[in-house]
Amino acid sequence: xxxxxxxxxxxxxxxxxxFYERWLGMRxxxxxPIESNRADIAFLKDxxxxxxxxxxxxxDKQDWTEGDELDHLAFHVLDVAALVADARxxxxxxxxxxxxxxxxxxxxxxxxDPNGIWIExxxxxxxG
Length: 128
Prior knowledge:
By secondary structure, the chain is an alpha+beta fold. It folds into two domains: about 1-70, 2,3-Dihydroxybiphenyl 1,2-Dioxygenase, domain 1; about 75-128, 2,3-Dihydroxybiphenyl 1,2-Dioxygenase, domain 1, CATH 3.10.180.10. It has two helices and eight strands. The longest helix is centred in the first third of the chain and has 12 residues, at about 15-25. One of its GO terms (biological process) is methylglyoxal catabolic process to D-lactate via S-lactoyl-glutathione. Keywords: Lyase, Metal-binding.
């Protein structure tokens, strides 16, 4: 198990990438659309620590409220299905059941922490 990344929702992907590169020294690792989620994502890496920041631009998002930018925190886990089952038994809210994106080498799921913050669980299921 281990912390994977923090994800924030952005209003403009190009402007946001430029900001984090220029002012915080981050480097764009990868960027791509996720059709099934109707979103574009980009991962930027801190060149000193290796920490990852995920930027998410939702295609259909029109309303913005200051403070809604934190999208989720992500953690690598060994067994998504088992962790979700245990969390459910303990009364933890499951925000999204385990699933895989087409062609992905990971299984994902989302829980909600006690404050309503989405927690992404990532299980590597193959090499990629």
